[in-house]
Amino acid sequence: MARVMLDSFGLAKACERTRPERGPEGLARVLAGACGQGALRHVLTRSGWHRLGGVVDRAYGRVADNILHWAEHDGDVDRLMEKCAAAGYFATRLQGCTHYFVAPWEDGSDDFLQIEVEELQEVLDHPLVDPDWYPESIAEFVDPLELPRLAPEPIGDARYVFRRVVRINEFLQGLDPARHSTVRLRRFFADWGRSSAGQACTSCGLHWALALREMPLADGGASFSAKPVATFDPATIELRRPDGLAGAVLANWLHRVDLAAGYPFAWYFLMLASRLVPVSVGEQVQRDLHSGFDYLPERDVRVVTDWAADPYTC
After folding, report:
1. Which of 85, 140, 192, 263 could bridge to 204 as Cys pair (CB 3.0-4.6 Å)?
2. Coil, strand, or helix at residue 179?
3. What mean pLDDT, rounded, does the chain reach?
């Protein structure tokens, strides 16, 4: 694996020169060439988020790239409102989605490469001045909660922006071991490695990406948290709730979940890190095991038994 190059600058340039019209699969091929990892695959896209954009005039000419920096530089709400009323300025927002790309690194459930790329589209958000509204602070001026929004008309072309590249096992090793969330996350990957899921697919990353959250610290550093996110949409599984199911009927329900997810023992990990499978299912499976049912492989029996003795979710 020495040929794999975790060159953030090179990956960023690859994103800059790739048009979103090529789609995530096209970007995957470009990124694979940039980092020397031919096994890189697009596994997940998370959408529905946005962040503050800039400022444009009536003709959509650029006034500022960052509305917060622009407003803070002026520093006076009254002066800003007077200037914007005369000029007819508009605020924009960046509508975004995050694409996740994964490649196995070595043989280990948590040893995979994860690359995150944002796809951004700047759109109109709201007029900076409304006759029926007056902000009380710079923060309210740049991000008003009650001001009506405009139709999200695009301003310029969509673009890819490189976010980060992470070798996941090294990331996990760097988390604070004293935090309960770290213990649960490491246990999630350990359970994958010793279960039927890990036997069928060594790299957990092909089925579970890690959504990373970075929180700035007062000393200038950063603290990270992470949550596994299924790389398929659990909402696409149309199953009635398993309330009251037990024995062979429950075994068939679990089998349907596994088939829909595409790998064995999927129900267990969906129980840990999604809302599709409730915790009560794991509890009922453990009761079935005590009653003599043997619909799970021995390796999965051990995982469920350990979980029942010390339950957790991510």
Report:
1. 192
2. coil
3. 90
CA nearest to 206, candidates 40, 54, 75, 9: 40
* More confident site: 76 or 90: 90
pTM to 2 decimals?
Answer: 0.89
282-305: average pLDDT: 96
Q: Please answer whether residues 57 and 63 qualify as being in contact, where contact means their C-beta atoms are separated by less than 8 angstroms.
A: yes
201 contacts 264 by C-beta, under 8 angstroms: no
Per-residue b/e over 146-176, b at no fewer than 16 CB within 10 Å? ebeeeeeeebeeebbebbebbbbbebbeebe
Tell me how far apart the alpha carbons of residues 34 and 14 are, in angstroms, rounded to a whole number: 7
Contacts for 235 with CB less than 8 Å, ≥ 6 apart: none
Give the Cα separation of 256 and 250 in Å (integer): 10
Percent of all residues in the chain with a pLDDT value above 90, rounded to a whole number: 65
Helix (H, G, I), strand (E, B) or coil at 134: coil
Domain ranges of the chain: 8-166, 234-309
Higher-confidence residue of 310 and 9: namely 310
Q: How far is CA 153 from CA 66, 95, 270, in A?
A: 18, 11, 38
Higher pLDDT, 37 or 293: 293
Name the residue type at position 140. E
Q: Backbone phi, then psi, for 245, in 5-degree steps?
A: -75, 145
Q: 3-state class of 209 per DSSP?
A: strand
